[in-house]
Design brief:
The chain is an alpha+beta fold. The protein is built from five helices and seven strands. The radius of gyration is 15 Å and the shape is globular. The protein binds zinc ion (ZN) (2 copies).
Length: about 170
């Protein structure tokens, strides 16, 4: 696939040919149809986010189509139109069971803990727990922008502070 990658913090992002992501047994691979950029991506690129390991493909605001499905995923099929929350909880730990996915210790965040959405494809873990179906009539760019408004960089910084305080 083609994707945007940086190899050092504050370094120039380059469009390169990268290996295609594979879906984990509990995850999916999405074909990225829309991807936004926001302040959290900038903080990550500046090196302010300890979850990011180099080299890195940024991007976390997306809308896409399910392209491949792991064998343990039961709720999603190839072709489904989806988006994902800012923080993907594992769905199984005590924090997730109490509804606090945002402080799950095993959380998945495309563009932070793993490669993100500035690429043709992105792997998303914990698909049954986290994928959100898009209404048929909603365009991908509308969905991506809605996600951006609800889940801005500010929310990530608040979450980050909250996690650090615990
Ligand atoms: Zn969890
Ligand atoms: Zn954002």
């Amino acid at each position: 696939m083609k994707g945007v990658i940086y190899r050092e913090f504050s370094g120039r992002p380059e469009l390169e040919r990268l290996s295609d992501p594979a879906s984990r047994s509990d995850g999916v691979v999405l074909k990225v149809m829309a991807s936004g950029v926001c302040l959290s991506d900038w903080h990550g690129w500046k090196g302010n986010d300890p979850d990011i390991k180099l080299p890195h493909v940024p991007g976390h605001e997306l809308a896409g189509i399910v392209e491949a499905v792991g064998e343990k995923v039961s709720n999603w099929q190839v072709g489904d139109r989806v988006t994902v929350p800012f923080v993907g909880g594992c769905g199984r730990c005590p924090e997730c069971e109490s509804g606090n996915h945002q402080v799950c210790d095993f959380q998945f965040q495309a563009g932070f803990t793993h490669w993100g959405t500035f690429a043709e494809y992105v792997a998303i873990h914990y698909a049954d727990v986290n994928l959100v179906r898009l209404p048929d009539e909603m365009e991908f760019t509308t969905a991506q922008r809605t996600k951006s408004l609800m889940q801005s960089g500010i929310s990530r910084m608040v979450v980050r502070r909250f996690r650090l305080k615990r």
